Amino acid sequence: MSEPDLDTRLETYYVRVHGIVQGVGFRHATVRQAHALRIRGYVANMEDGSVEAVIQGTANQVDRMLSWLRHGPPAARVSGVESEERVTERRYERFEQH
To answer: Taking the model in full, what pTM does it have?
Structure first.
């Protein structure tokens, strides 16, 4: 029995980033990083001061994006990241800022 290829099977993760992540260019930097990694989905500010993201890509791409989100851009101060895989049939075409 073969394992799914970590470079082909799409994964979708819902992510919530807490800390000083609004007003510091977090969303803009996230879009740049997602484009560099060829991740699809979106990033948005939430009313509670956190940032929400949906990231979709291969396991290797998602792992690299999650690792980046744990730190964010230089001005951000990430205090916590929650992430969970979500099963969905939706396929995002690009990564965008909401």
So the answer is: 0.90
